[in-house]
Design a protein that fits this description.
Elements: H1 2-7, H2 9-15, H3 19-38, H4 49-57, H5 59-74, H6 79-85, H7 88-100, H8 103-107, H9 112-136, H10 148-167, H11 171-174, H12 192-212, H13 217-237, H14 240-257, H15 264-267, H16 269-281, H17 305-308, H18 312-325, H19 336-339, E1 341-342, E2 345-346, H20 353-360, H21 363-386, H22 391-403, H23 413-427, H24 432-435
Antiparallel strand pairs: 1-2
Length: about 450
């Protein structure tokens, strides 16, 4: 059966759409395209300010999550049953987290409506995880990575829209194109760094598929082309954290599942990636520095590690100084936006998951949150050791966790959606009916 799954990869996904393909098309294509057209801009923020607020909280992706939650509830999803099936330690951690993580947003934050809205987002994410867990039981583990096709289609669509947006300029924009902050102009993404993180997640998912499948030569070459295309987009974005996340997922995959099944992963794929990187390096838009990994002419690069990290060390230090004054329950969700300023720049999130949790929630909610996350990740790795076909989803999860040490993967809704979704897909068992169904 495993060999059949490998050789019929493209035929199965395209020829017989299942719940995973639909899930990928919605999450990877439909939602990013809605965001792309809703938030088209050549500025650091969209207008009016209310629309920018919906972008910051990720309303498009939250709406998609709510849609899946309602759909699965109509199909019989019972959160009470899922709660009863959780280990006792997990129920206690979740209960403590739910009882405390919103307190500072309601009573400490000077903007409680905004902070509580971000808290509501976390409730939706957790319910969404349960909905994905539920729908995953309708697919055998070997088919759950079929979400890849929707995400690749989404990458193609975003690339086309971005190319048009960057080249077909309105007259008033074309007159001062060299003054545009092109790093904030990618349709559907608040910054080029978040675009790079999104491409890294998809790239790692595709790398995991190539890792676990040998298949026929034609199918493998098509898969390598898709990998090279997404890698080229990531390289074009010049997002260092994305590169670190993708590279960091590779040794973890080796530890969990052993070496790639096909030697072409080591001997042929690097050639595809090299060509993609060369092409991407030639397409730097308007010479904008945001699309460069390191500006070698910038004297700050020789100043300190803090400068190389885009002042993250200073930002983390200032955040932790505030945590010291609000250790138990933090300062409210999104509080770094109004509490911490570096020069003239305000940061909506701390660029580190641990600092973010401590600043926003404090120690009391952070401890059970990290226990839940860590326990789920450990169980996901253990599951993949015995179910190698889930490796692509685990690799995407690991990639986002690594990036979360340097950027807001636990702040922005679309990335939390990917993290909790990939965890649910890794952990969900196949129902008895599905296990007995031919692939």
């Amino acid at each position: 059966m495993e060999a059949r799954i490998e050789t019929d990869l493209f035929a199965r996904v395209i020829g017989r759409p299942g719940p995973m393909l639909v899930l990928g098309l919605v999450g990877g294509l439909a939602l990013p395209m809605v965001a792309a057209f809703l938030y088209l801009t050549y500025d650091i923020a969209v207008r009016p300010i209310g629309l920018e607020g919906t972008r910051q909280v990720g309303i498009v992706f939250l709406a998609g999550e709510i849609g899946l939650i309602l759909h699965r509830m109509r199909r019989g999803l019972s959160y009470r049953e899922q709660w009863s099936a959780m280990p006792r330690w997990a129920r206690r951690c979740l209960a403590l987290f739910a009882a405390t993580f919103w307190i500072s947003s309601a009573y400490v934050s000077p903007f409680p409506a905004f902070s509580l809205l971000l808290c509501v987002g976390w409730v939706i994410h957790l319910l969404f995880a349960g909905a994905v867990f539920n729908i995953a039981t309708e697919a055998v583990p070997a088919c759950r990575s079929d979400i890849w096709l929707g995400f690749v289609a989404g990458m193609v669509a975003v690339a086309v829209v971005t190319a048009v947006h960057f080249t077909v300029l309105p007259p008033d924009v074309a007159a001062h194109a060299d003054q545009i902050d092109w790093g904030s102009a990618i349709p559907g993404f608040i910054s080029v760094r978040l675009f790079g993180a999104w491409t890294a997640a998809i790239l790692t998912l595709l790398t995991g598929i190539a890792w676990t499948r040998s298949g026929d030569v034609t199918g493998r070459r098509l898969l390598f082309i898709a990998i090279a295309f997404v890698f080229g987009l990531m390289f074009w974005s010049a997002t260092r954290a994305a590169m670190v996340g993708w590279i960091g997922a590779l040794p973890l995959a080796w530890l969990v599942a052993g070496p790639p099944r096909s030697r072409d992963m080591i001997t042929v794929l690097p050639l595809y990636l090299t060509v993609a990187a060369v092409i991407a390096s030639l397409l730097r838009p308007y010479g904008h520095p945001a699309f460069t990994f390191f500006d070698l002419l910038d004297p700050r690069l020789n100043a300190s590690a803090d400068a190389i990290s885009s002042l993250r060390l200073t930002f983390w230090a200032r955040s932790l100084e505030i945590v010291r004054d609000y250790p138990l329950f933090g300062t409210g969700a999104g509080s770094s936006w109004w509490l911490i300023t570096l020069g003239t720049t305000r940061h909506v999130q701390p660029h580190n998951v641990l600092v973010q949790f401590l600043l926003n929630w404090g120690l009391v909610p952070t401890i059970p949150a990290l226990a839940l996350l860590g326990g789920a990740v450990i169980r996901a790795h253990a599951r993949v050791r015995g179910e190698r076909s889930l490796l692509p989803l685990l690799m995407m999860l690991d990639c986002l966790l690594v990036i979360g040490l340097f950027d807001g993967m636990f702040h922005f809704a679309q990335f939390i959606m990917l993290i909790v979704g990939s965890l649910a897909l890794c952990l969900a068992p196949a129902s008895a009916v599905v296990r007995g169904r031919p692939v």
